[in-house]
């Protein structure tokens, strides 16, 4: 029997739920198939925007903080090619894990209801766990899920979805979004340091492109 143990396994992108105190993963949501395309948008936080006068011109090259960065991509979940594995719930568990990134838990909601019944005037907004998006070893960054569009198809006899296409939008959380002492701030700085290192490689390599 021929074995192919030396063939490297593909690296899967993933969403990781992290304990902000310990820094250990609570849950890892591995994307079954890596998206074919990934769209990223960066909006600089310029200090001189929206004003007029000499003072604003002096601020034109100043930044208030890191750029606001968003990621969007389409992911696929498909259990129809794994029919030998029992799937009594279809892909409900995978979808639920993603949906819980934008829902508080029932325990958190019940606690907020109890506080409101006690007459608490101001209820502290519910804090969600730290979420990381991993796209290979060079891109591991704190994010907040901003968009989750789900298109389900191929249902079983119990109407459990067996296949879905997901439109996912993420906002990168920087030191401008998180407290200084938050673990996510350190992870963002590590992500930014990785960019600086890669940018240095581009400079040594003789540029980043050609102007036509």
Walk me through the topology:
Blueprint: E1 14-18, E2 25-30, E3 39-46, H1 54-58, E4 63-78, H2 92-99, H3 106-117, E5 130-134, E6 140-155, E7 161-172, H4 183-204
Antiparallel strand pairs: 1-2, 1-5, 3-4, 4-7, 5-6, 6-7
If you had to describe this structure to a student in words, what would you say it looks like?
The protein has 212 residues and is of the alpha+beta class. It starts with 13 loop residues before the first strand and ends in an 8-residue tail after the last helix. The radius of gyration is 22 Å and the shape is globular. It is built from 4 helices and 7 strands; from the N terminus they run E-E-E-H-E-H-H-E-E-E-H. The chain has one domain. The longest helix has 22 residues.
The helix content, as a percent range, equals 10-25%
Instruction: Evaluate the radius of gyration.
Output: 22 Å
Kindly give the count of domains.
Answer: 1
The total beta strand count reads: 7
Structural class: alpha+beta
Characterize the overall form: globular
Quickly describe the structure.
The chain is of the alpha+beta class and 212 residues long.
Observed structural traits:
212 residues, 7 strands, alpha+beta, seven-stranded antiparallel beta sheet, 22% helix, single chain
């Amino acid at each position: 029997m021929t074995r192919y143990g030396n063939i490297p396994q593909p690296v899967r992108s993933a969403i990781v739920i992290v304990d902000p105190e310990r820094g250990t993963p609570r849950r890892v949501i591995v994307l079954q198939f890596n998206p074919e395309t990934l769209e990223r948008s960066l909006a600089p936080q310029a200090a001189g925007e929206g004003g007029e006068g000499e003072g604003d011109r002096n601020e034109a090259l100043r930044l208030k903080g890191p750029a606001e960065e968003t990621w969007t991509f389409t992911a696929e979940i498909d259990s129809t090619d794994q029919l030998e594995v029992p799937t009594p719930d279809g892909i409900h568990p995978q979808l639920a894990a993603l949906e819980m990134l934008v829902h508080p838990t029932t325990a958190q909601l019940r606690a907020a209801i109890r506080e409101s019944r006690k007459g608490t005037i101001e209820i502290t907004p519910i804090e969600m766990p730290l979420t990381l998006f991993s796209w290979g070893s060079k891109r591991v960054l704190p994010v907040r899920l901003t968009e989750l569009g789900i298109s389900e198809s191929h249902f079983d006899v119990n109407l459990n979805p067996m296949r879905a296409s997901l439109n996912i939008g993420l906002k990168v959380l920087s030191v401008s979004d998180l407290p200084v002492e938050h673990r996510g701030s350190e992870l963002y700085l590590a992500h930014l340091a990785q960019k600086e290192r890669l940018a240095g490689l581009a400079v040594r390599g003789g540029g980043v492109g050609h102007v036509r």
